[in-house]
Write a structure and sequence with these properties.
Elements: H1 2-6, H2 9-12, H3 15-32, H4 38-52, E1 56-62, E2 65-70, E3 76-80, E4 89-90, H5 99-109, H6 115-128, H7 130-138, H8 144-151, H9 158-174, H10 184-197, H11 203-228, H12 232-238, H13 240-258, H14 266-282, H15 289-302, H16 307-322, H17 331-344, H18 347-354, H19 359-375, H20 379-400, H21 403-423, H22 427-436, H23 442-452, H24 455-464, H25 474-483, H26 485-502, H27 505-524, H28 528-541, H29 546-554
Antiparallel strand pairs: 1-2, 2-3, 3-4
Helix pairs in contact: 4-5, 9-10, 9-11, 11-13, 11-14, 13-15, 14-15, 15-17, 16-17, 17-18, 17-19, 19-20, 19-21, 20-21, 21-22, 23-24, 25-26, 26-27, 27-29
InterPro entries: Znf_SWIM
Keywords: Metal-binding, Zinc, Zinc-finger
Pfam families: SWIM (PF04434)
């Protein structure tokens, strides 16, 4: 307490909040820096040297930050944010955490505890792992960095690759207890840079290496999320983009491999990789369902093409489904198994299994399969999928809830089924789809009916979705006057009655406008007797509505 007062901390913030900030900052820095990385070790040493030389001055707490000046070769102004370390600033040209920020941290930490003890505690994991590291070396297992030093680059050895990825991940990312999930993506990027720097020089082998690295890294990061107990919302906010980037990398690599002739020596690696992809699918009980499915679906579609491999994978997933653990989500296994059945041409088995997956999950995948078969012009296989898709679509849009989300999905669905309907002359199926997709498909359905000149069904569509004369644009009104004025008469009758039922002066004026339009149409059709009869009946029914009668007289309707 006396030390804190002496340095002015107590006067600014109060002793307990400052101590808590120091501890929070300590945890952030321990999570960010690794005792295994030489550059991190040098950073700590340089900061320690500046602090021990007494070069940190004017240390204070302002606006929740530790601020000070470090008298280096050029004085550096430092602002340390204990809550979000990445928002800290230093006037020196270094990017990220620098030696001046470390010196200020040590100066602040000294008010709470021994700096030497902090450094010793930070280095503790390195000492604990020394025996394990020596043992791994004895077994011939080296980290990616060690291999680069000794051999220039990793040799094509699948087991050694995976071992190096796992050791690097455990060292740089997985060996810490995180309280702040936003630190993970920074460390994960450092890990990715390290393993990419160790890739083989040969272009072909580099692609395989990076593909294996992406799959293993995805699995390791997913397992880490489970171990840390972060919920799905936290993961999505903090580092879900890391998973998305890996998926993008895999898609790009597979695309490059697809346009190259791969050597036969790759077959063994691809065989190992398919087992790795199964582990990725089963690495977590729940969460990242769509991402795991996407990775599995992509690789089994584009890379693992042998029929016997696909049969074995479908069987293995089926066996796993029989022995799911409590709380394990079966959906990823069901969807990937359905996809494998489609790849094997077992459409009946696939469609039968579709019914066992909730509509809110399976419906978007059905759209993908429709697109895949349509692109390959496998029209015989498309029609049963479209039929089943339309049966489940209403439940899916109800589940989406949002009108905007449903509209966007319906646009995609129409684009997906249009090629089949167009190529096979199935206007009936397209119209059925438009009916199922209402009200989101209203514009497309109306356009179809107008093109076909089906005015009666067009009128039914307007009534079905609750639209009337007031919803018609001028172009529609002119078209109806020319093509089917009797339909316009019916809509005007309904519109006028709705306005009268509102019983206010403004609505009466609007009702009279509709009635005058009606009179013009009756006259054009030479049906004035019907008009006179209708108007007489209307005025008789509304004789107690004095304001409406006045509006009729004022407009010379009477």
């Amino acid at each position: 307490m006396d030390i804190i007062k002496e340095y002015g901390f107590f006067d600014v913030m109060g002793s307990m909040p400052v101590i808590e900030q120091i501890l929070e900052l300590s945890d952030e820095i321990k999570n960010k820096l690794s005792p295994y990385l030489p550059e991190d070790v040098k950073l700590v040493q340089k900061g320690l040297m500046l602090y021990r030389q007494g070069l940190v001055t004017q240390l204070r707490v302002e606006q929740g930050e530790f601020r000070a000046t470090v008298q280096d070769v050029t004085p550096a102004k430092v602002q340390l944010d204990p809550e979000f370390l990445r928002l800290s600033k230093c006037s020196c040209p270094s990017e990220g955490l620098c030696r001046h920020q470390m010196a200020v941290f040590f100066s602040a930490y000294a008010h709470k505890d021994s700096v030497a003890d902090w450094v010793s505690e930070w280095r503790e994991p390195l000492r604990k792992n020394m025996h394990q590291t020596n043992l791994a070396t004895a077994w011939g297992l080296k980290t990616a960095k060690d291999l680069v030093k000794s051999e220039g680059a990793l040799k094509p050895d699948y087991s050694r690759w995976v071992q190096s990825f796992e050791v690097s991940f455990n060292t740089l990312v997985g060996g810490k207890k995180y309280t702040n999930p936003f630190i993970i993506p920074e460390l994960f990027e450092i890990y990715l840079k390290r393993i990419r720097a160790s890739a083989p020089v040969e272009k072909e082998w580099r692609l395989v290496y990076e593909l294996v690295a992406a799959v293993v890294s995805f699995r390791k990061l997913a397992v880490l999320s489970d171990e840390l107990g972060f919920d799905e919302q936290t993961v999505r906010r903090a580092y879900h983009h890391s998973f998305e980037n890996l998926l993008g990398d895999v898609e790009e690599i597979v695309g490059k491999m697809g346009v190259q002739t791969l050597p036969f020596s790759f077959d063994k690696f691809i065989g190992h990789l398919k087992d790795e992809v199964f582990e990725l699918l089963t690495c977590t009980k729940k969460g990242l369902e769509h991402e795991r499915i996407y990775m599995h679906r992509l690789l089994w579609t584009e890379l693992f093409r042998k029929k016997e491999w696909r049969q074995e994978e479908a069987k293995r997933i089926g066996e796993h489904l029989k022995q799911l653990e409590d709380g394990e989500n079966p959906v990823p296994y069901l969807v990937t198994r359905i996809h494998l059945f489609f790849l094997l041409g077992n459409d009946e088995q696939a469609l039968e299994l579709v019914n066992s997956v909730p509509e809110e999950f399976i419906t978007p995948y059905m759209l993908l399969w429709i697109e895949d078969f349509s692109a390959a012009r496998m029209w015989r296989r498309v029609e049963p999928l479209i039929d089943l898709f339309l049966q489940q679509l209403r439940k899916y849009t109800d589940w989406l809830g949002s009108y905007h989300s449903s509209s966007v999905f319906i646009r995609k669905a129409l684009r997906a089924i249009t090629p089949f309907c167009s190529e096979n002359g199935r206007v009936d199926l397209f119209e059925r789809a438009l009916l199922v997709m209402l009200p989101y498909s209203f514009a497309d359905y109306e356009h179809l009916l107008l093109e076909r000149g089906d005015w009666d069904r067009w009128a039914e569509l307007y009534a079905l979705v609750g639209l009337g004369f007031d919803d018609l644009g001028k172009d529609r009104v002119k078209l109806l006057e020319k093509k089917r004025p009797e339909l316009l008469i019916g809509m005007l009758h309904q519109a006028a009655q709705r306005e009268i039922d509102q019983k206010n002066r403004g609505s009466y004026r609007m009702a009279v406008r509709h009635l005058k339009k009606l009179r013009t149409l009756y006259k054009k059709l030479k049906q004035m007797e019907e008009w006179e009869y209708f108007l007489t009946q209307l005025l008789d029914r509304t004789k107690r509505l004095r304001a409406f009668q006045e509006e009729c007289q004022r407009s010379k309707l009477i």
